Amino acid sequence: MAVIKAAMRNTKETLDIYWALVRIMAPIAVVAEILSRTGVIKAVTPVFDPVMGFIGLPPELGLAWLTAMLIGIWGAVPLIFALVPASTLSAADVTIFSALILYAHGLPIEQKIIQKAGPGMVATTLLRIVGGLIYAFLLHRLFAATGWLSSPVNPAWIPVSATPDWITFFLGLAETMITMLIILVVLSWGLEILRLTGLLDLMMRALSPVLRLAGIQGEAGHFTAVGLFLGISYGGGLLIREARRGAISPRQIFLSCIFMGFAHSVIEDTLLVVALGADLAAVLLGRLVFAVAATATIAVLLRTVSDNSFYIWAFRRPSVNTSRGVHSTAQVTTSL
């Protein structure tokens, strides 16, 4: 009976998330198609030239990058091959762009959650964007120097591509929405099975030594692992509670949130971009290695920062009330 209730709850949550994504993605896809057909995108792409050129990508993808940062990965997915035909992109291009949006997406929602845990929104948002650009640039230079992934991209799934007429476009959009529902259900149930079998807990424990390399220790490491596998809404939500209890030091919370910003939801997000043609090693292993190295570097620099400067620039000065064992909790938005 408990299993059936859990199944019903999981399915309902997935359908709620799916409906929220549809209400965001479908209008964006239609607007983007209109802008593309009327020549507006072609007119504004020079604005993105410097950034996209820095990482070796077509400037048209700048709009998809901006959408990812404001809406989320799922908001950008329908735009990628609609803005730039798949036939003109290499596997390296898709991998670089995937890395870029994996680091910085859904910033208004995710960064608000992180801010509630204490870290400053401006500092952590800039670190995520800059971190993504640096990692994308490193991949660009690596691929350019070695020729790795220079072959045309061969996606397992093309959400929406450039179409000659509106009927074909809307049929493609409907197919995308149906495929997205299937993917979300499979991913949510996959995570639920990992939880029920205890494998997710084992994965989190195995990650502890890696997090210590990044300067994240103790209880902060556990919550960071939750965010790594399940997303910022889960890991950040737990940190909000612990921050209000005063159970974890502000600097550890800050480092945990930085790491989660660099690497979170590594199962579902990674599978999604791999389906688009991104290289698994680059968007998973490389991303994790960079996240650990970057967070460790920030941890070293943080030791040189005074408490006064830390609370001015990076963290909201804590106001903790732990008397009589009464602690407030935070309500957070759940997103994949």
Low-confidence stretches: 320-336
What's the alpha carbon Rg, rounded to whole Å?
Answer: 20 Å
Helix content: over 70%
Write down the overall mean pLDDT: 83
Main sheet summary: none
The H/E string reads HHHHHHHHHHHHHHHH
Amount of beta strand: under 5%
Alpha plus pi helix count: 16
What is the terminal separation in angstroms? 26 Å
Number of domains: 1
Shape: globular
State the secondary-structure class: mainly alpha
The tally of beta strands, per DSSP, is 0
List its traits.
336 residues, mainly alpha, 72% helix, disordered C terminus
Overview of this structure, please?
By secondary structure, the chain is an all-alpha fold. The protein has one domain (2-325). Helix content is 72%, strand content 0%. The chain is built from 16 helices and no strands. Helix 1 runs antiparallel to helix 9 (166-197), helix 11 packs antiparallel against helix 12 (232-245) and helix 11 packs parallel to helix 13. Mean pLDDT is 83; it is low at 320-336.
Q: Summarize this, please?
A:
This protein is mainly α and 336 residues long.
Topology:
Layout: H1 2-37, H2 40-44, H3 49-54, H4 61-70, H5 73-83, H6 91-103, H7 107-117, H8 121-146, H9 166-197, H10 199-213, H11 218-230, H12 232-245, H13 250-262, H14 268-275, H15 280-302, H16 307-313
Helix pairs in contact: 1-5, 1-9, 4-5, 6-8, 6-14, 7-12, 8-13, 10-11, 11-12, 11-13, 12-13, 13-15
